[in-house]
Amino acid sequence: MEALDVQHLKKVYDGMTAVDDISFSVHEGEFFGFLGPNGAGKTTTIGAAVGLVNPTSGTVSVFGHDVVKDYRKTRALIGLSPQEFNVDMFRHAWETLINNAGYFGVQRAVARERAERLLKRFGLWEHRFKRFQSLSGGMKRRVLLARALIHQPKLLILDEPTAGVDVELRHWLWKELKTIQKQGTTILLTTHYLEEAEQLCERVAMITHGKIALIENTADLIKRYGGHKKLEEIYLQITGSDTTEDGNAPAV
Ligand SMILES: Nc1ncnc2c1ncn2[C@@H]1O[C@H](COP(=O)(O)OP(=O)(O)O)[C@@H](O)[C@H]1O
Ligand SMILES: [Mg+2]
């Protein structure tokens, strides 16, 4: 059974097609990279997986359960670290974690114990009673990751979890994410750091203009391109992302 199975997913916003009939699946236990330039449709696809985006057509299922028909069940199987900070800015990390655990029906005593463990592991324990808005960018990202893990999801979805995070923290996160995968969690990651995808992802999908350009085992892909190229060079070749989605040169 696939951890995530997307079949002919299409999403149209006011006549604009954001996701155009894509199909792919993420195998149980794997670390899967979902790559593409800004505006390609990655966050929309993730939204469909967590039930935040209503598909125009097509289906998404999580461990065999349809996301639309079985929303509560599928949502509980997923831990999401979203691209945007969708957190109450005045709430502190402790409360954010405990509330989220409650939302997924985790017993209060269990939630407290897990929250303590996660906050300590992520270096947030001393900051647990600070307002979200007062935390650094790197701490905010770690709170989102801890929140995503509090109900022990089988599928962890990370939408640009290392955006704006310094190199040291990024490398620390890579190690943590590898450990989380080893402990049995399936991971879907979107990132603009191709080195990150190369280090972590066993398979990658590349998406442009709402369509999948490629899905392949990362090592095989690099081998197919002669073995000496970095994933970033291959990515640029495949996605043609020397320009942005609207055809303009990227802003510097
Ligand atoms: N709620 C929305 N309403 C209208 N257009 C949207 C909405 N969300 C995303 N889009 C558009 O859909 C396209 C895909 O966006 P998104 O899924 O966020 O891409 P990515 O995550 O790959 O950057 C973009 O053109 C974006 O402007
Ligand atoms: Mg996005």
TrEMBL record:
Residues 4-234 form the ABC transporter domain. InterPro entries: AAA+_ATPase (IPR003593), ABC_transporter-like_ATP-bd (IPR003439), ABC_transporter-like_CS (IPR017871), ABC_transporter_ATP-binding (IPR050763), P-loop_NTPase (IPR027417). The keyword Cell division does not apply. Signal peptide: none annotated. Gene3D superfamilies: P-loop containing nucleotide triphosphate hydrolases. PANTHER family: ABC TRANSPORTER ATP-BINDING PROTEIN, ABC-TYPE MULTIDRUG TRANSPORT SYSTEM, ATPASE COMPONENT. This is ABC transporter ATP-binding protein.
